[in-house]
Amino acid sequence: MGLLAGGLARIIVPSRGQGCIYTLVIGVLGALIGGALSAAAGVGDGISGFNFGTFVIAFLGACLLLLVLYAIGGRRAVR
Fold it and tell me: Could you say which of 19, 57, 65, 67 has the lowest number of CB atoms within 10 Å?
């Protein structure tokens, strides 16, 4: 699921191409960030299995992570 969420997030948010491992890490970290934020906000159970809601949370977390990395790295991070 991390690879799918990270891959879709990299299509939506501009980033430089780092490969499959980078995408997987972004997806997994995005899932953790999205799950923590959704649990803190009281929206659902966070990450609770392999379903569509969990994928959406992982995707949004990965997008958020990529946006933060983009803001930190500046324009150099974009292809």
Answer: 19
